[in-house]
Each structure stands twice: as structure tokens, then as C-alpha cells.
From TrEMBL:
Domain of life according to the entry: Bacteria
Transmembrane segment boundaries: none
Chain ranges of the Protein YjdM N-terminal domain: 2-31
Lineage: Bacteria, Pseudomonadati, Pseudomonadota, Gammaproteobacteria, Thiotrichales
Organism: Cysteiniphilum litorale
Every Protein YjdM C-terminal domain range: 44-110
The protein's name in its UniProt record: Protein YjdM
InterPro entries assigned: YjdM (IPR004624), YjdM_C (IPR013988), YjdM_N (IPR013987)
Family: Belongs to the YjdM family.
């Protein structure tokens, strides 16, 4: 069985200790049962297509960058996304802008 990445810091170096999973990088601990609950929480794009880490997406709406005059334009392609927990559930890098967090409701799978 392959262990999941750490839900706190996304580290791949998680190990099992009894009924707990432990991340050596951020010291986060959680129960093995919590993994199955997280696995059912599938992130979907604006059209209901499931998203996974490493997917490519396209922005479907102009998005203003908070605290800046920059705008992420409709049709902007983003490669190699990473799914995270929270309101903004996509972590990515956009050319010309840099690291960003996006909401899955404003993207479609490419």
C-alpha cells in the first residue's frame, strides 16, 4: 500500500507508526482512517471533471490577482497543478505571474 502525501505540507515522506501516519518534515500526525475520508473528497473543475495532481488546466474566467494590477486572462493554460485543502484548492505557477492559488470552480481540465 502506498501511503498518501501529508495533508499539511504535501510531503511524500510519510511513515506509519501503529494506527497513525506521521510526516517527518512538519511533524503532522493523523489517523489512518482519515486517509479514506480524504480520498472520497474529490476535487472537480467547473464542469464536474475530477482533477488530480499533475493535471493541466485552463482558466475559464478573467481572474484579478489580489494586491496587484495583474489579471489572469481567460484561456490561460496552467501545467502541473497541485491539489490542496482549503477555499483555493489548486496550487500552481502561472507564467508571467508566479505562484498562485486558484479555485477549481474557475478552471477546466485541459
Amino acid at each position: 500500500m502506498q501511503l498518501p502525501h501529508c495533508p499539511q505540507c504535501q510531503s511524500e515522506y510519510v511513515y506509519q507508526d501503529g494506527g497513525m501516519l506521521i510526516c517527518p518534515e512538519c511533524a503532522y500526525e493523523w489517523q489512518i482512517n482519515a486517509v479514506t475520508e480524504e480520498a472520497t473528497d474529490v476535487k472537480k473543475d467547473a464542469y464536474g471533471t475530477p482533477l488530480q495532481d499533475g493535471d493541466s488546466i485552463t482558466v475559464i474566467k478573467d481572474l484579478k490577482v489580489k494586491g496587484s494590477s495583474l489579471v489572469v486572462k481567460v484561456g490561460t493554460k496552467v501545467k502541473n497543478i497541485r491539489l490542496v485543502d482549503g477555499d483555493h484548492d489548486i496550487d500552481c505557477k502561472i507564467d508571467g505571474i508566479g505562484a498562485m492559488k486558484l479555485k477549481s470552480e474557475f478552471v477546466k481540465k485541459a
